[in-house]
Amino acid sequence: MEVSTSSDVDVEQPETAGAAVDGAAWAAMVGPKRGRFSGPYAITLMRIATVLVILVFWQLASGPILPAYAVSNPVSVAEAAKNLLTSSAGWSDIQTTGIELVVGFALGVLIGTVLALVLGAVPVAGRVLEPLIAAVNGIPKIALAPLFLLFFGIGTESKIAIAVFSASFIMFYNLYLGLRLVDGELVEIVRVMGGRWQDVLRYVTLPSLAPPFFAGLKASAPLAMLGVIAGEFIASFNGLGHLLYIDSQQLDAAGTFGALVVLVIMSLIINSILTWLDNLVLRLLGLGDRGRAAAAKSR
Amino acid sequence: MQWRRPESVGAPASASRDARPAVEDEALRFEDVTFGFAGSARPAIRDVSFRVARRKFVAVIGPSGCGKSTILNLSAGLLSPVRGEVYFGGRKVEKINAEAAYVTQSANLLPWLTVERNIGLALKFRDVGESERRERVARWISLVGLEGFEHHYPRELSGGMQKRASIARALVYDPSIVLMDEPFGPLDAITRLNLQQELLDIWQQQSGTVVFVTHDLSEAICLADEVIVMSHGPATVRKVLPVPIERPRDIGAILESPEYASIYRELWELFHAELDTSRKVAA
Asked: Where are the transmembrane segments (chain B) (predicted)?
């Protein structure tokens, strides 16, 4: 399968496009792919500038335009966040919320995954339980928080339970639907090639489930966090949600914003870990972008 | 409507059936096989009987939706007949036929494995040792002209290259029979011709048994030793037509030969009659 290059075709061309338009010569002719403001640094700089403009406006408007008791100002918020991050009381709150979140999220993922795999593997169980699961999923998870407080008390256990509940449904649905999308022809091909059931699992089912699994992780992590914080709002004696609530009750806007800043940092950390994991696994499975597609198409 | 009566040309095929050649020469045999999916209104194939001799290339043609793929699935052991029996090498096919290889319409390579690992997978399932596996995979990669693409993933290849990889994957474990379900259907005309010629060349070296489902009359004549013409569904065997074109074959030369033209006319008339009846059934 030879590909004819432009030099085979006898048409009038400008001098520069002469015999061999390839590699460096071509790159020089068309220039790098870039818009006027779209270089890698320009975008980052513009992002930072946007944040700075907002912060400056906030600082200047707090008082003259906006009520300072409600919006505080960036300098005070930074101080409050720093206090939170440097005091032992602050760390104890961060630690409580962190443990609730990580344990609740991990258990939720585990339970949702196992449930999906079991229901997928036993079709009868799937048909019996699926409507029930849908009914329970219809309840807003926060509405169950008072019940969990009754069951597990106002300590960390009740928050973990809410997080488990919030995360597991997303994981269940993502994987359960993912299982249905496993390509039946691939399964048949592997079986005709002599694959046993464990080969089908390893070479077809599990790799097919990787994308919905990671999509599920990214979708359920914020819900687990929502569950933990909401649980702490309702009844708790420590944690970032507790702190947020108490600070706002005491009209401490700076403290409230400071706790929010820490929450944002936590969720960014979790999200970047999940993104990293996602990319790693997809790359190992050859599903990630390796930029080879263009090279292969030329043949 | 003028077309020759099937009986006048069908002599060789039916004679060979009556003669009942030794089982050793037989790869695949269908005996009055009827199959339909549970809950369907009518069977997909009805009372299908035919016999494929070893080392023969047999094409199965028929109107679309006439159950051609069902015949392959029954041969592979992916489906079991509702009535009748399928024999492979003299033994009844009851579970997945481990001596068969399947090449489907879409390449169906595993997207998460490189070309090399896709091709080597069946050898791995058969516990072929690492060094032998490498050797056989490398040989097939070069036979289908994919050198340099060993470490590419399927989505990085063109449709034709994916098809080459899937053919190599099917042939690498020396299956006794290769089942091909319109393998070149989705390809463009040029790639198709190229791959047909390559398949001819490869098959002439390997010459295992091939059952090749297609709805392309020309493809059937160019590739096969025998063409099984199916009737409109529920499909039965309408006629088995020998293709007396000698090997090695060259598709360019075949297309210009007088034998090709006469076989094509014969097939076309058979096919046309089938389409006519199917239209009447539909109306």
From this structure: none
Q: Which of A195, A207, A295 sits opposite B125 (nearest CB)?
A: A195
Please give the pLDDT value at position A287: 72
Residue B59 sits in the same domain as residue B171: no
Q: Identify the domain boundary among B153, B175, B197.
A: B175
pLDDT at A141 over 90: no
Do B26 and B120 lie in one domain? The reply is no
pLDDT > 50? residue A291: no
Of B153, B173, B194, the CB nearest to A286: B153
My answer on whether B166 and B255 are in the same domain is no
Q: Do residues B193 and B166 lie in contact, with contact meaning Cβ atoms separated by under 8 Å?
A: no
Could you tell me the residue range of the domain that residue B229 belongs to? Answer: 6-99+176-282
User: How many domains in chain B?
Assistant: 2
- Structure confidence by residue, pLDDT tens digits, A224-268: 999 999 999 998 889 999 999 999 999 899 999 999 999 999 999
* B257 and B273 assigned to the same domain: yes
Q: How many Å apart are CA A25 and CA A283, to the nearest integer?
A: 32
Q: Containing H/E element for A217?
A: helix A206-234
B96 with A192: Cβ contact below 8 A? yes
> What's the rounded Cα separation, in Å, for the pair B213 and A59?
75
Are A192 and B102 a contacting pair at CB < 8 A? yes
> With contacts defined as CB-CB under 8 Å, which chain A residues touch B173?
193-194
- Residue B155 has its nearest CB partner, among A190, A199, A293, at A293
Per-residue confidence at B234, pLDDT binned at 50, 70, 90? confident
> What distance in Å separates the CA atoms of residue A119 and residue A117, rounded to the nearest whole number?
6
